[in-house]
Amino acid sequence: MSRSFRFVHAADLHLGSQMAALALPEPAAARRFAEAPRAALAALVDAIGAHDAAFLVIAGDLYDGPWRDARTGLFFNREIARLGPGFPVFLLAGNHDAESRVPAAIPAPANLRRFPVARPASFRLEELGVALHGQGFAAREELRNLAAGYPPPMPGQFNIGVLHTALAGRPGHEPYAPCTAAELAARGYDYWALGHVHAFEVVAEKPHVVFPGVLQGRHPRETGAKGAVLVTVEDGQVAALERLVVDDVRWEAAAVDLAGAEDEAEVEARIARALPAVAAAAGGRPVALRLRLEGMTPLAPRLAARRGDVAATAQALAQQAHPDLWIESLEIAAAAPSAPTPADPALDLAALVAEAAADPVLAAEAAVLAAEVAARLPGGLGAGQEPLGAPLAAMIAEAAALARDRAGQGG
Ligand SMILES: [Mn+2]
After folding, report:
1. What integer is the mean pLDDT of 84-108?
2. I need a surface site. Which of 179, 293, 311, 343 has the fewest CB within 10 A?
3. How buried is residue 389: exposed, middle or buried, by Cβ count under 10 Å (0-12/13-18/19+)?
């Protein structure tokens, strides 16, 4: 019969990955973001101790990819060793750290147990009455249903399936090791410790099928609280599941509605009002905020034309809300009420801009120029990994706003 115990389930630590390019004005803040994935692991190790968990399961993508050198592995080993020589850690290889990409290049601590990649295998924790079953990725593109080969549950044990998978598909995630949640539930295990999907998700209960999500958000689209999960087992049943939020920095997105704003004081007031909630949600952590200004206001062209000043103002207001709240990017999506069409079509700026924007020759030339600029900037165009088309459209809109502002045309 299983005893009562707690364990921690983590996945997608992506150690060794570069945080998204951040042009923060403070070097100390930039360093903290760069080192956040490591800090999150250290916080996880602390939390395991604080919650008196009995073991740790890592369901894939511990490493982001091949090491440049051994430092990343040495760091992980050092953190795992802090758990104590007898503390069991179970590690499964995912697509990012598949065995072919990240071979076990340095000796691992004695408390680390790796699932094999050639076939599923089971580990037992006899004192707790726990059996863990898993198979790691041999290579990056694992398109077989690995779960189909997992063994039947061991009778009288708390059975945990450890698997790196996108299930039947999750937006933005490669469809590796495909299977369905129903299939997993039918296997007869008590808990499925999944990895690969970066958002926290309790896919099912009884039995639990869980993605803990990424341990630390690494770019503007990985917003909100991140971490692992703490599972409490009583009398062989999952009695509680709670998130262990251990991320060291936050990515957030916020939109400010400027509808009807008549002057810049009002714009500032509305931005200022939106910021304290963002800071509060992060619980004192540094935040990289993607800020979007939207809504219909006659100030729109002026804001777009003075983008640098608006960004500096927003940053100053952010700092008042929280000293470590950084505007990671500013999107000016506000629109002006349309102006009357000029009688002379040669003076119709809106029509001229629309015509230019639709000109394929101009678009091709702009794309070449933008690619040249992007290639020379260490952080690219600053718009993350978005396709070049998106920044191009934004640039054309910005140019149009600038031209309208100079020409004194509201729309
Ligand atoms: Mn993955």
Report:
1. 91
2. 343
3. exposed
Ligand 1 geometric centre to CA of 176 (Å): 8
CA 20–ligand 1 middle distance (angstroms): 18
Q: Phi and psi dihedrals of 125, rounded to 5?
A: -115, 90
Q: How far away, in angstroms, is 231 Cα from ligand 1 center?
A: 22
What pLDDT does 338 receive?
81
Tell me: pLDDT of 294 over 60: yes
Name the residue with tokens 């692992």. Answer: 228
C-beta separation of 245 from 282 below 8 A: no
- Distance (Å) from CA 390 to ligand 1 centroid: 26
CA 137–ligand 1 middle distance (angstroms): 10
| Secondary structure tally for the chain: helices H, strands E | 10, 15
Those residues whose C-beta lies under 8 Å from the C-beta of residue 386, and which sit 6 or more positions away, are none
CA of 65 to the centre of ligand 1 (A): 10
End-to-end CA distance of the chain: 73
Domain boundaries, the chain: 5-245, 250-337, 339-411
- How far is 232 from 8, CA to CA, in rounded Å? 9
Cα of 147 vs centre of ligand 1, distance in Å, is 16
125-128: long-range contacts at Cβ-Cβ below 8 A with a sequence spacing of 24 or more? 125/54, 125/55, 125/88, 127/3, 128/2, 128/3, 128/5, 128/54, 128/55, 128/158
Residue 14 C-alpha to ligand 1 middle, in angstroms? Answer: 9
Q: What is the pLDDT of residues 307-341, one digit of tens each?
A: 999 999 999 999 999 999 999 999 999 999 986 56
Q: What is the pTM of this model?
A: 0.82
Strands 227-234 and 237-245: antiparallel
Coil/strand/helix, residue 266: helix
Q: Which two tokens stand for residue 320?
A: 């008042």
Domain 5-245 matching CATH 3.60.21.10: the answer reads yes
Residue 385 banded pLDDT, cuts 50, 70, 90 = very low
DSSP code for 62: S
pLDDT band of 388, cuts 50, 70, 90: low
Cα(339) to centroid(ligand 1), Å: 50
Cα(201) to centroid(ligand 1), Å:
15
Cα separation, 380 vs 359, in Å, equals 25
In tens, the pLDDT along 137-184 reads: 999 999 999 999 999 999 999 999 999 999 998 988 999 999 999 999
**Percentage of the chain modeled with pLDDT above 90:** 73
